[in-house]
Amino acid sequence: MKIRSPIVSVLGHVDHGKTTLLDYIRGSTIADKEAGGITQHIGATEIPNDTIEEICGNFISRLTIKDLIPGLFFIDTPGHAAFTSLRKRGGALADLAVLIVDINDGFKPQTFEALNILKMYRTPFIVVANKIDMLFGWETHEGASFKESFEQQAQSVKQDLDTKVYEIVGTLHKEGFQSERFDRVSDFASQISIIPISARSGEGIIEVLAMLLGLAQEYLTEQLEINEDAPAKGTVLEIKEEVGLGLTIDSIIYDGVLRTNDEIALMTSSNEVLTTKIRSILRPLPLEEMRDSKKKFRKFDEVVAAAGIKIAAPNLDDVVSGSPLRVLSDNENVEEEILKEIEDITISTEDEGILVKADTLGSLEAIVKLLRELEIPIREADIGDVNRRDIINSSIALNENDAHGAIIAFNVNVNPNSQEDLDNSDVKLFKGDVIYQIIEDYEAWIDEMEQAKKKAFYDAIIKPAKFMSLPKLVFRQSKPAIIGIESLSGTVKQGQTLINKNGEYVGVIASMEDKGETLPSIPRGQRVAMAIKDAIVGKHFDEGDELYVDIPEKHYKFIEREFKDKLTEDEFETLHEFLEIKRKQDPDWGKFGLFE
C-alpha cells in the first residue's frame, strides 16, 4: 500500500482569494489571466513536499511529515461549483478543504453554500481568513508566518484582527461548528482552525500548509492508502477541445493506476455508460496548473493517484462533467457500478414532488441530499438543461399538487425551444448558481402559497359578528324586512344567516345600503339600511334587539383550532356570547369529539 497526497479543495465566495492563494504557493499568475480575476474553470495543482518545505522553512521541521505524506494536491474551483462537481462514490472527492473568507467582508452566500456542503459531506476543513493586509494600519511582512507578522503589528491592529476573527467564530458557531484562531485551538479533532493570511504577501501561508499536512498525517493516513496496482478510479472535471488532440477530458485520479490503452467507462448526458480506449495520458509538471501549463503537457504511459491528468480518447462528445471514471476490470462489473451510481441520483425518486435539474452529477447529488433533509419530495432529478419534457412533467405534477409544479435548476439553462412552453405554463422555475439560495427561494414561494391558502380559507370562514336593530328605523316589516342597523362587532356581510338572542333563525341578509350605495360588507360602527329575507319585525326580533351572524358548527371548530388568535377583541367577545346562545339549545354544540 502507498500513501497518496491528500486532495485539498479550495472553496469560498467569488473574489475572496482562492486562486490568489494557490498562485502564491506555485508562483504562477493564473488569477491575472482569468476573466475579471474570477476562476472560470476547475484547475488542479500538485504541490510536492520539496516546495512546501521551501515555503515553510524551519517552521515545518518539527513536523515529521516528509516520509508519510508526499505532498498536497490542490483543486481550485469556481465559486458557484465549489466542491459539488467533484465527487466520488459515497461522498466528496476532497479529503480536506480550505474555506477561504475575506476577513473584512465575512461570510457571503457562496461561503455559506460551501460550508453547508462541507457539513453535508463531513469533510475536514480549515478556515483561511484572507486579506489581513487590507486591515487599517497593517504592516506587511512578505512571506512571514502569521505569528511573526502579528507580533510586529500595533496593538490597535491586533485588536481589530481579533475582533474580525471572533466574528467568524460567531458565524461558525451559529452554523454548528466550534472554532478558534489556529494558535489557540485546544483540540484539532473538534475545533475548526481559523488561520489569518494575506494571499498576496504570503503572510500566514506557512501555517496553512503546515496545518493541512498536520491534519492529513494525524487523521487521514488510512484514508490516503491506495493500491498502486488497482484499476484507476477518478472523476471528470471538464471536457475540452485541444488543438491537435480533439476533445479531451480533464480528470482527477484518486485511486489506483491509469495506463495508456486502458479501457475506461464514463457517463453520458443521457445517463448511459460509454466505454472508450485511452490514446494518451497528458500531465502538467509539478507546480504547473492544468489550465496553464507553460510547457504544455508531458505524455505519460501511466499515472498513480493522486493525479490531475488530461486524457485523449475517441467518442468523448457526450461525456458529462462530474462523471465517474473507471478502468474496465475483469474482477468487477464497472459498467454496472457506474449505472448504479447514476441511478442512485437520477431515477424518479418518488411518485410525486418537484423536478430537479443540475449541471453535473455532483451538483445533482448535493441538491437531492439537501432536499431530502428538508423533506421536500422529488419526482425526478436529472442532469442537463430544462427541456419540454420537464415542463410537461411539472405541469402534470402541478395538477396533482400546487407545491409540486416547480423546477429547481442549478447552473443550467432552459432549452431555447422550450422557453415558450415554460412561459405558457403555470410551472414555477427556480434557477441560479447558489444551491441554497434556489432552495430558499422555493421554500419562500411555498410559504407564500400556504399563507395565501390560509388567508383564502380564513376569508371564507364565517366569523363572529353582530349588529343592533335601531329603534324607530323599521322601513318595512317583512318580505323582506328593511331596517336601520348599527354594526356592533366583526364584519357583517351580505348573504349571512342571522339568529336572535334565543338562537332562533331570523333570516338571511339580502342587501345593505348607505346613501344609495349597495355595500357587500360593513365593519364595526357603521350604520346602514339592511334588507333581511324571511324576517318579520315584531315576530323574529324587535326594534333595539341585537342579532348575531349564525356560525356553522364546523366553522366554529376551525376558528377555535386555527384562527382564534386572529380574532379582534370585539369578535372574541361576540364569539363567547354566540357560544352561550348555542349551548343553551345544545350543551355539546361546538365541542371537539374524541377523534377530531
From TrEMBL:
InterPro entries: EFTU-type (IPR029459), P-loop_NTPase (IPR027417), Small_GTP-bd (IPR005225), T_Tr_GTP-bd_dom (IPR000795), TF_aIF-2_arc (IPR004544), TIF_IF2 (IPR015760), TIF_IF2_dom3 (IPR023115), TIF_IF2_dom3_sf (IPR036925)
Keyword Nucleotide-binding: yes
Alphabetically ordered keywords of this record: GTP-binding, Initiation factor, Nucleotide-binding, Protein biosynthesis
S-adenosyl-L-methionine in keyword set: no
Domain Tr-type G: 3-220
GO function terms (MF aspect): GTP binding; GTPase activity; translation initiation factor activity
Residues given in the record as GTP binding sites: 12-19, 76-80, 130-133
Lineage top rank: taxon: Archaea
Pfam family, one: GTP_EFTU
CC annotations in GO: cytoplasm
Job description of the protein: Function in general translation initiation by promoting the binding of the formylmethionine-tRNA to ribosomes. Seems to function along with eIF-2.
Entries under HAMAP family matching the protein: IF_2_A
Family, as annotated: Belongs to the TRAFAC class translation factor GTPase superfamily. Classic translation factor GTPase family. IF-2 subfamily.
UniProt name for this protein: Probable translation initiation factor IF-2
Name of the gene: infB
